[in-house]
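Postdoc handover notes: sequence design on the structure in folder B. Input C-alpha cells:
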C-alpha cells in the first residue's frame, strides 16, 4: 500500500517537503514502478558500442540491461534476464558477442534479443516451447546526439518531446560539434544516500560557496580558478530554467568566452580559448549565434536520474545509490584538450574528486535525517525564491530571477509527484516545444 496516497509531498507555496520520500521503502518500491518503469532513462552512449556486435552492460533503475549493437548495426536495450528461470545472460561490463548463452541451462539468445537455441527443444520440450515469444525483453530505445535513452513504457512520448525545450540548453554541450561526442568511463562507486538527494543537488547553486569553500580555495590557489562567494553568486547573471522535470542551470554571458569546464586553469586557459575561437564558426552554424556565443549550460539534471552531463544516479534501495561517472568529450577536440578535461573531471567529480567528496557528505546527511521519526515531523524547507520564477522573453522553460533559488528543487519534486500519481503517461503533462532551435543541430546530432 502507498505510504502517501495520493502523493502530496511538497507544498507549492511554502516549499515544505515530506522527508519520508528519502528513506521509506514502500515509496521507493513505487518509484521503481512509476518513475523508473516509465520515464526515458539515459543508459549509454553510441561510442560505448561503436562496432557491430558490441555490447555494454547498463541499468534502467535497478534492472540490469544489455545495450547491444546487433549484426546490422541496430541498437537494442535488452533486459538481462534469461526468459527461462531468470539468470543474467551477460556477466561482463562490456564486450563483443553475436549471442549470449545463459550459464544455467544453456538457452542462447542473439544480440537482437531473439531466443536462438534451447538445449533439448525436440527431445525434452517435444517442440512445444514457443521460442519466438521467449526472446529477451526489449525496451524502447531512442538517441539524442549520441546519448542513448530507453524506456519500459509503450505509451511514453517520443524522446524529443520528453526532453522538450531542455534540449535548447543541452545542445550547447551535447550537440556542439559536427563530429559529435565521445564517452569515457564509467568510474563507478556506491554512495550511502537516496538517489534524489544528488539529483536535486545538481542545480543547487546555493551550497557551492559553503560546501565547496575549501576545495575551491585549493583550486583558486593552484589552478587560478575564480574565488567563490555568496555575494558573487547572488548577483550572478546566470540562471535556472526548468522544463518537463529537467533542471537546467546556465550562464548567460555576452562576452563570448569559453564556458567554464573542468580542466580550466591559468596554465590551460589558452587551450580552451583557442578551441573556442577555432570552432566558433562551426558551432554558430550548428546552434545559431545566441546559443553558440552566449548560453553556457552549467549544472543540470535530466529527469529522473541523469546528472551533470553524462553521469547516472542509479538507485540501489532507498538508502543507497550507485553512481556512474563518465567524461564526455567533443570527439574532434585536440588530444591535449581532451586529456586536460579528462583529468579535471576526475579531480572534481570522480570517485576521489574534491567537489564530489564535499557533496556526498551532504547527500548522506539529508538521507539520514529523513529516517528519524522525530525529524519526519519537521519537513525539509525548499522555500527560497517562491514566486520569483516564470516565463522569460529570451529563454525557454520556467526561468528563475536569480542563479540562487530553490525553484528547480521545488519543481523537481512536483514532477516526482506527477509521475507517482499518474496511472499512465496520459496523466503526465508535457510542456509544448516552443523554443526556436536555430542552426543545423538536430536530435540525431
Ligand atoms: S535459467 Fe537460463 S537456461 Fe535456464
Ligand atoms: Fe556540490
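Designed sequence:
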Amino acid at each position: 500500500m502507498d505510504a502517501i496516497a495520493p502523493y502530496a509531498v511538497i507544498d507549492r507555496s511554502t516549499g515544505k517537503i515530506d522527508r519520508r520520500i528519502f528513506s521509506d521503502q514502500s515509496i521507493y518500491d513505487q518509484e521503481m514502478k512509476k518513475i523508473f518503469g516509465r520515464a526515458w532513462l539515459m543508459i549509454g552512449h553510441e561510442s560505448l558500442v561503436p562496432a557491430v556486435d558490441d555490447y555494454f552492460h547498463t541499468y534502467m533503475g535497478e534492472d540490469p540491461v544489455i545495450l547491444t549493437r546487433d549484426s546490422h548495426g541496430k541498437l537494442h536495450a535488452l533486459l538481462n534476464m534469461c526468459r527461462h528461470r531468470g539468470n543474467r545472460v551477460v556477466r561482463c561490463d562490456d564486450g563483443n558477442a553475436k549471442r549470449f548463452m545463459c550459464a544455467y541451462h544453456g538457452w542462447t539468445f542473439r544480440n537482437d534479443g531473439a531466443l536462438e537455441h534451447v538445449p533439448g527443444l525436440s527431445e525434452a520440450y517435444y517442440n512445444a516451447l514457443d521460442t519466438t515469444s521467449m526472446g529477451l525483453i526489449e525496451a524502447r530505445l531512442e538517441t539524442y546526439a549520441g546519448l542513448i535513452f530507453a524506456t519500459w513504457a509503450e505509451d511514453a512520448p517520443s524522446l524529443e518531446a520528453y526532453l522538450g525545450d531542455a534540449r535548447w540548453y543541452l545542445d550547447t554541450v551535447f550537440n556542439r560539434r559536427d563530429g559529435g561526442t565521445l564517452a569515457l568511463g564509467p568510474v563507478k562507486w556506491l554512495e550511502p544516500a537516496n538517489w534524489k538527494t544528488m539529483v536535486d543537488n545538481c542545480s543547487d547553486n546555493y551550497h557551492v560557496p559553503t560546501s565547496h569553500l575549501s576545495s575551491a580555495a585549493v583550486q583558486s590557489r593552484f589552478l587560478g580558478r575564480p574565488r567563490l562567494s555568496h555575494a558573487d553568486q547572488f548577483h550572478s547573471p546566470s540562471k535556472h530554467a526548468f522544463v518537463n522535470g529537467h533542471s537546467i542551470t546556465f550562464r548567460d554571458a555576452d562576452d563570448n568566452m569559453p564556458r567554464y569546464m573542468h580542466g580550466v586553469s591559468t596554465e590551460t586557459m589558452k587551450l580552451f580559448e583557442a578551441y573556442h575561437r577555432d570552432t566558433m564558426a562551426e558551432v554558430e552554424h550548428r546552434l545559431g549565434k545566441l546559443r553558440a556565443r552566449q548560453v553556457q549550460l552549467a549544472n543540470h539534471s535530466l529527469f529522473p536520474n541523469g546528472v551533470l552531463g553524462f553521469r547516472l544516479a542509479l538507485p540501489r534501495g532507498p538508502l543507497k545509490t550507485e553512481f556512474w561517472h563518465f567524461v564526455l568529450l567533443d570527439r574532434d577536440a585536440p588530444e591535449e584538450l581532451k586529456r586536460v578535461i579528462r583529468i579535471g573531471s576526475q579531480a572534481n567529480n570522480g570517485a576521489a574528486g574534491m567537489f564530489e567528496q564535499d557533496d556526498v557528505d551532504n547527500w548522506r546527511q539529508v538521507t539520514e535525517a529523513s529516517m528519524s521519526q522525530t525529524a519526519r515531523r519537521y519537513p525539509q524547507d525548499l522555500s527560497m525564491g517562491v514566486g520569483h520564477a516564470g516565463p522569460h522573453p529570451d529563454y525557454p522553460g520556467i526561468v528563475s530571477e536569480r542563479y540562487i533559488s530553490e525553484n528547480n528543487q521545488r519543481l523537481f519534486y512536483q514532477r516526482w509527484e506527477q509521475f507517482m500519481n499518474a496511472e499512465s503517461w496520459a496523466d503526465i503533462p508535457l510542456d509544448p516545444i516552443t523554443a526556436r532551435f536555430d542552426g543545423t543541430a538536430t536530435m540525431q546530432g
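Context for whoever picks this up: Residues 257 and 443 are 26 Å apart (CA to CA). Don't rerun without checking with the PI first.
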